[in-house]
Amino acid sequence: MPVLENKDITLNYATFGDSNDPALIFSNSLGTSYHMWQPQIDILQADYFIICYDTRGHGKSSAPNGPYSLAQLGQDVIDLLNHLHVDKAFFCGISMGGMTGQWLAINHPDRFEHLLLCNTAAKIGSEAPWLERAALVRENGLDDIAKTAASRWFTAGFIEQYPDVVRALSKALAAGSAEGYASCCEALSTADTREHLKDIRVPVTVLAGSQDPVTTVADGQYMVDNIPNSTLATIDASHISNIEQPDVFTQLIRHYLNT
Question: So what CATH class is 3-124+192-257?
Answer without folding.
Answer: alpha beta
